[in-house]
Fold:
Amino acid sequence: MTPSPFHGIFSTLSTSGTPRLGSPRPVPLPSPSPTESLGQVALDIFEQDGYYVVKAPIAGVRLQDLDIEVNDNVLTIRGHRHQADSVSSDQYYIQECFWGEFTRSITLPTVIDQKRVRASFNKEGILKIIIPKEEKVKIVRISEG
Structure:
């Protein structure tokens, strides 16, 4: 058997139940269960100048493969990451990148005005969504007088 070209490089990453990368043939990873079939997007959410700002690094996704939905106070990001090259699963030594459909929903503390939400997607693959915080309405009591 021919040893792996990565023999010893990543061996410290091995844990029980995880294939060792120094093994001569890659061991296939278990298939995801139906509940794990969709990937997720990592998010940063912060407040700045009266806005909620959501940033998501999603490299490898084209703008036309993204869908951003706003429903009451829930923001949902959906998309599809296409793999450009066709590599069979038995050729991988490590496969940590998620390819396929992904979704992520977050609940914000206020109702979102859909018409005022803005999104941009830069060339580095960072999605940025700007959501105005709900303007508080002051209640003014008018007395007779």
Q: What stands out?
A: The chain has no helices and seven strands. The chain has two domains: 1-30, 34-132. Residues 4-35 have pLDDT under 50 and may be disordered.
